[in-house]
Amino acid sequence: MSPAPLSDCAKYVREHDNDRFLSVLFAPADYREDLFALYAFNLELSKIRETVSEPLIGRMRLQFWRDAVPQILEGTPPSHYVAEALASAVKMHALSATYLNEIIDMRETDLDDIPPKDLDAVVRYAEGTSSSLIKLALNILGVSGPDADTCAKDAGIAIALIGLVRAIPYMSSTGRVTLPTDLCQVSGLDPETPLQWPTNPDVSKITQPMLARAEQHLNTARASIGRLPRVAVPAFLPLSLAGLYLKRLQAFDGDPGLFAARSPGMSRHVTLLWRSLIGRP
Fold first, then answer.
1. pTM for the full model?
2. Which of the residues 26, 49, 85, 206 could staple to 110 if both were Cys, CB 3.0 to 4.6 A apart?
């Protein structure tokens, strides 16, 4: 018997957010499509800045989703496959409008093209985007409460910080860097002129503090996940991959260029399988 074809949201997530795609596969079947819808919604927002030529156009797209949220909550979404799928997830799981709107509001800062002042500013952004996304995933899985929120906060920050470090080669090639300004300056780099950076710059003074902060949040999240029901595990499996990436980045002295040149490959799948089996992301 052949497997069921992937939905449009699942295909979208598989192509553009493969870590979360793989994580969803370890969730109970009844929850997968709703998780794919949530992650597709996140992609719609996160890709806006890189797909528009003018911030005004980006703000128009964000406003589409800001206007869509109340319609989605009412069960009358706009004609958009992600909005329609998300409306189904909202109806089934009563997803929090607060977290949906928080992600939208935080993504608007992407359009300002102003690098964050310091690492604390990056952490606040990570909490409003990555952590809120995990809280919504937990809603879908039927998990809520103070312990879940606290764990989601730390896990989301860790995932986002490690993701930013990994993205440095790409960011510097596009002319838009969202790294802490103070750390860039310590490294002798101007975050507003990445196209003028020297080839293969030493970014260790940027990456090491970010990875150290990420490790703190990762360890705190892992210490508290055990207090949550096992059904919560799929929402945190991206943290398993973040932990894998962290170890490799540390082995390369925080050099994202070396990391990119030596992809983890199949170890991603093995890590997810093992972490899912033991229930410890």
1. 0.96
2. 49
